[in-house]
From TrEMBL:
GO process annotations (BP): regulation of DNA-templated transcription
PAS domain mapped to chain residues: 288-358
UniProt GO molecular function: ATP binding; phosphorelay sensor kinase activity
Ranges of residues in domain Histidine kinase: 426-639
Entry's EC annotation: 2.7.13.3
UniProt cross-references to PROSITE patterns, sorted A to Z: HIS_KIN, PAC, PAS
Source organism of the structure: Corallococcus terminator
The protein's name: histidine kinase
Location of the PAC domain: 361-413
UniProt keyword annotations, A-Z: ATP-binding, Kinase, Nucleotide-binding, Phosphoprotein, Transferase, Two-component regulatory system
Record-linked Pfam families: HATPase_c, HisKA, PAS
InterPro entries: GAF (IPR003018), GAF-like_dom_sf (IPR029016), HATPase_C_sf (IPR036890), HATPase_dom (IPR003594), His_kinase_dom (IPR005467), HisK_dim/P_dom (IPR003661), HisK_dim/P_sf (IPR036097), PAS (IPR000014)
Length: 640
């Protein structure tokens, strides 16, 4: 007879189904293993836990297969690191031959990683903040020097305790234009510019644009600072052009993430390169603008610019000097207020044509001066166009024609004088014939009277005076014709005293009219000069005439000749009113005169100076107000 064996369950003990239900209902991931850690049961929570971390239950089983079971009544933990980096902890608890396994995430590892991530986020936020502030700073700078200073502040804030060097170069020539170094730079280490191959590839630098001999590419960038062990660099590249580089080096013992630093430095360099390019463009534009402004201001021409409202926007120095009006007095004023009233009707159509884009050449008008006078100018106008082709204003470039007009008047006057001179020459010829007869007959009568006994001496004296006066007239007419004849510019040996005497003879009528006296103090031993006689006579005629005009009746003209070394000296001194100091430096200028209107042209002294200098000499002046003026002529003596 066969007997049955039955498991007897103590009263009140749960059934296996109840244990299974409890095991499945656990929220904590769990599994049951035997003493060899072979998994016999897995609850749903563990399956969900594994799915949440992207693994299967087999991963847990594999981890348990490599572990050892705890002793009976003991527990220990097994670490399981997933491919994602997540760390799991498996807690093993043993009772008899059954091992219970519970799974959880290592919260300490997660906390640590969260701290690291938080620090990384904070560092990223700080880096972005510094870069943002730097972007604002470089956008506001006014030049390259300020830009470099702003970049240096940003680099120090981003990378403390590091040595760094900022170099800015000319994109075309590669020449160094700015340098900033923080640290002890090696001598001569800042040139030439060496770039790393890796950074060049990351910045898309065009190698064909690199200037030869100024920039080189290398696998490793040489250290620039004393005491550095490692280095990173970033080229400043914008639009494929190189504008410089930033080198950063690490002292021995500094712990830093070099890869991270290089990424940030490249990001910084990209931002700075654009700013450097813009700064250089601004500098170039500023230079060009200043150059053009200086060109307009200093140009040896009259330059005037008006806008569409006919307001003056450019009034250069030549115009200021001509009119005596400063730019502050003129800029912003209507152009019509600067011309004479009688010229405004002529000016209006010219401006209207220029505003339509039409050019006008050789437009003459009269500008007002600061003292209410007028100057005559000639302008050529041209329209200034905007980008779309609209007329923005009018530029007028011209010249002062006041002198030209004055010269035209002088030429007309000179032609009149030439005609009168020709008439005078004819008159002189007509005078010479009868005066020769008078002199001849007077001489014959005088000789007869001397041979006649009992002749009246009084009659002889009268004949002698007639003869002397006739010869004086003949001599004067002969010298006058010689003086009026055009000079051949061929120097001849002339006696200085005789030339001065001839000039005095021509000025006798001026001397008598001014009621002054002439005192001659001639040196008798002055050697002859090599000179054009008529031209020298003209010099002394002008100086004597000016002296007579400068004195009231009763004055005296002193003519002194002397020899000083290899020079002949003539001094023409008057006792007149003298010349004001403010006019003394201008008396040799063409058309400058202190004489009343109608008494002088302002050309005499200028012509005299030219004649003296053409003879290799000098004409100087000394004057004291109230005491008189002395003109000194120095001429080289003839070489034997």
């Amino acid at each position: 007879m066969k007997s049955e064996v039955r498991a007897v369950r103590p009263p009140g003990t749960p059934t296996p189904d109840a244990f299974q239900a409890f095991f499945d209902a656990l929220d904590e991931p769990a599994a049951l293993c035997d003493a060899s850690l072979r998994v016999s049961a897995v609850n749903p929570a563990l399956r969900r836990f594994c799915e949440a971390h992207g693994i299967g239950v087999d991963v847990v089983e594999e981890a348990l297969s490599g572990a050892s079971a705890p002793d009976d009544g003991q527990a220990h933990e097994v670490d399981l690191v997933l491919a994602s980096g997540t760390s799991l902890v498996l807690t093993l608890s043993r009772k008899a031959d059954t091992v219970a396994v519970r799974a959880r995430v290592d919260t300490e590892v997660i906390s640590g990683r969260l701290v690291v991530a938080e620090r990384a986020l904070l560092e990223q936020a700080r880096t972005e903040g510094v870069l943002l502030d730097l972007g604002r700073s470089v956008a506001e700078v006014g030049g390259e020097e300020e830009l470099v200073a702003a970049v240096a502040r940003g680099v120090k804030e981003l990378f403390p305790a590091r040595s760094f060097c900022i170099r800015i170069v000319d994109a075309r020539t590669g020449g160094l234009t700015s340098l900033y170094a923080e640290g002890r730079l090696k001598e001569g280490a800042h040139e030439p510019l060496v770039l790393s191959q890796r950074s060049v590839e990351k910045t898309n630098l065009s190698l064909t644009s690199l200037p030869q001999g100024r920039v080189s590419i290398s696998e490793e960038v040489p250290l620039l600072f004393h005491g550095s062990t490692r280095a990173v660099s970033a080229p400043l590249v914008a639009s494929g052009q190189l504008f410089g580089a930033i080198n950063m080096e690490y002292p021995d013992g500094l712990d830093a993430d070099i890869a991270h630093d290089e990424r940030v430095l490249l990001q910084l360099a990209s931002q700075v390169a654009v700013a450097v390019k813009n700064a250089k463009l601004i500098d170039e534009l500023t230079f060009v603008r200043k150059y053009l402004e200086e060109l307009l201001e200093k140009a040896n021409a009259l330059i005037l610019v008006v806008n569409r409202d006919k307001q003056v926007v450019v009034f250069n120095e030549a115009l200021s000097a001509l009119t005596g009006l400063s730019k502050e007095q003129v800029l912003g004023r209507d152009l019509s207020s600067l011309v004479a009233d009688s010229e405004q009707l002529r000016l209006a159509p010219v401006l209207a044509a220029a505003m339509r884009g039409e050019s006008v050449n050789n437009f003459e008008t009269r500008l007002l001066t600061h003292d209410g006078g007028e100057v005559r100018v000639s302008f050529a106008t041209s329209s200034m166009l905007t980008q779309p082709g609209e007329v923005e204003g009018v530029i007028a470039i011209g010249q002062d024609v006041t002198v030209v007009k004055e010269l035209e008047k002088r030429i007309i006057h000179a032609e009149k004088l030439a005609s009168i001179g020709q008439l005078a020459a004819s008159v002189v010829h007509e005078i010479n014939n009868p005066m020769t007869a008078v002199a001849t007959y007077a001489d014959a009568l005088l000789q007869r009277s001397r041979l006649t006994p009992g002749a009246n001496p009084a009659d002889q004296e009268k004949l002698r005076k007639i003869l002397e006066s006739s010869h004086r007239i003949l001599r004067f007419t002969r010298d006058l014709v010689s003086y009026a004849r055009p000079a051949q510019d061929r120097p001849e040996r002339v006696a200085l005293n005789a030339v001065v005497d001839m000039a005095v003879g021509f000025c006798e009528h001026v001397v008598s009219q001014a009621r002054v006296t002439v005192h001659r103090e001639y040196a008798g031993d002055v050697p002859p000069l090599a000179a054009v006689r008529a031209n020298l006579v003209q010099v002394f005629v002008n100086l004597i005439t000016n002296a007579c005009h400068a004195m009231p009746p009763g004055g005296a003209v002193h003519l002194v000749t002397a020899q000083d070394g290899q020079e002949a000296v003539v001094r023409v001194r008057d006792t007149g009113t003298g010349i004001e100091p403010r006019n003394l430096s201008r008396i040799f200028e063409p058309f400058f005169t202190t004489k009343p209107e109608g008494r002088g042209t302002g050309l005499g002294l200028s012509i005299c100076q030219g004649i003296v200098e053409n003879h290799g000499g000098r004409l100087t002046v000394e004057s004291t107000v109230g005491q008189g003026t002395t003109f000194t002529v120095r001429l080289p003596l003839a070489v034997d």
